[in-house]
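Task: sequence in, structure out. Protein: Flavodoxin-like domain-containing protein.
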Amino acid sequence: MKSERTAALLVASVTGNTQKVADALQGELERQGWNVLHLVNRERFEKTVEADLYLVGFWCRKSSMDDSSRRLVNQYQGKPMLVFGTMGNYPTGDYADLVRGNVQEIVNARNCCRGVFLCQGKIREERTEARRKLSPEEPHYLDDEGYRRHLESRRHPNEEDLQNAVGWLKERLTA
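Result:
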């Protein structure tokens, strides 16, 4: 018997980080009896779908959600959305709070943001090395602390991140 509850799982993932989190969330939704409508990469997503709940997966770009995720969110109006994203930075602290705030603002402009989950995701080695070669005066220069963070990112999203994402989802579904 199919569930009466339908979730649309809409994911933008370039490197596979966000998709990995989406897969964990999809598994939990299905365990709880949700009918999961879609699991798509947003670049190929051209029409809206009807659901009881929308889960939007994004990758962090310029302290916010990537452009395709932003366009997707703006295609909807008045929809309940849980938003999850991956970023090279740590998911706690001032920068993470800035990202969460920016994402909530985008979603709440036309929809209802019911929460934002962030976890660290892998940063490609070539990006790390390119930033390391910049002059220290450049705003995107990677100092030693940033370099350590980039190296740490290569271990994410890990099993703990996925468990945290599932825990976050469970909390939101019972709220």
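The mean pLDDT is 89.
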